[in-house]
Amino acid sequence: RQAQYSELRNKPCKTKDGQPIELMINAGLVIDLPHIEDTGSAGIGLFRTELQFMVSASLPRSSDQLALYRTVLDAAGNRPVTFRTLDIGGDKALPYMETVIEENPALGWRAIRLGLDRPGLLRGQIRALLRAGGGRSLRIMFPMISEVAEFDTAKAIVERELTYLRQHGHTLPERVDVGTMLEVPALLYQLDELLSKVDFISVGSNDLFQFLFAVDRGNAKVSERFDTLSAPILRALQEIVRKAKAAKKSVSLCGEMASKPIGALALIALGYRSLSLSATAHGPVKAMILELDAAKAETKMAEWLAAPAGSFSMRQKLTQFAETE
Ligand code: PEP
Ligand code: MG
């Protein structure tokens, strides 16, 4: 199996009917970096910067952050890397930072909320990212944005730091793209406004699913109760990709859904052409893509989604499609 997947490495990632699909990897630590090469991926679609903070005994200094981001960009070469700013708080507590006892940590003081309330931390991180990106292209993404104003505030920090670095004679990135994760359902109803401001979006299907179904992603008693491959989720994902395409903004998905061949199949059938997944999932997902008739999958998906929700199992339809086509 493994040998078979490594054979796929150098094949262009295209469906049987010739649609190019961009496959990227999710990463967060230096040990993940060799996977960019050995999977033959198009880059890093999600770099979880909080991992450096989580494995560290004390707050990583700016020089440590800068060094890591440089290492990551060097390893990626010309391939894009999307750095997500700190997604800490909630269940990802840092032992050396103030801890807040919260009844609903997933809904609590975490990610960009914490970042905007403690701007020193976020500013320092953004400065390190901008410095690491000096002379190259850089992509910065914010986690858990819930309203457009939060994106505006976070983006203004990037602009301010760019001005600061310019004034201090640093080499600036050639280009900075600023985008957001889409993982809070409220954003579904602000898509037009949001898309007019961002350079790109990436769907965080793990959290989006958790919040849409009000089901704790870490609680085994309920986490499998509802199906990710069901009409409410697929309709939301369809709305996102349609609006992003209409607004000519790039859209990707970096949650676990993309790491399963059947999930990736559903996403391509919905119109997604860029996915970011765990390195180990790369082979199986690429193998599925090479065999897929994307146009046919899109037609089928449109048909299934036009039926009343719950008329049949979407998962079963997709599985049948995968087996017979
Ligand atoms: C997600 O929510 O889907 C996501 C990619 O972010 P994380 O899993 O780090 O919360
Ligand atoms: Mg998330």
TrEMBL record:
Keywords of this entry: Cytoplasm, Kinase, Magnesium, Metal-binding, Phosphotransferase system, Pyruvate, Sugar transport, Transferase, Transport
Annotated organism of origin: Bradyrhizobium oligotrophicum S58
Compartment(s) of residence: Cytoplasm
Keyword Magnesium: yes
Principal location class: cytoplasm
GO process annotations (BP): phosphoenolpyruvate-dependent sugar phosphotransferase system
A GO term for molecular function: metal ion binding
Presence of the UniProt keyword Cell membrane in the record: no
One GO CC term, this protein: cytoplasm
Stated name of the protein: phosphoenolpyruvate--protein phosphotransferase
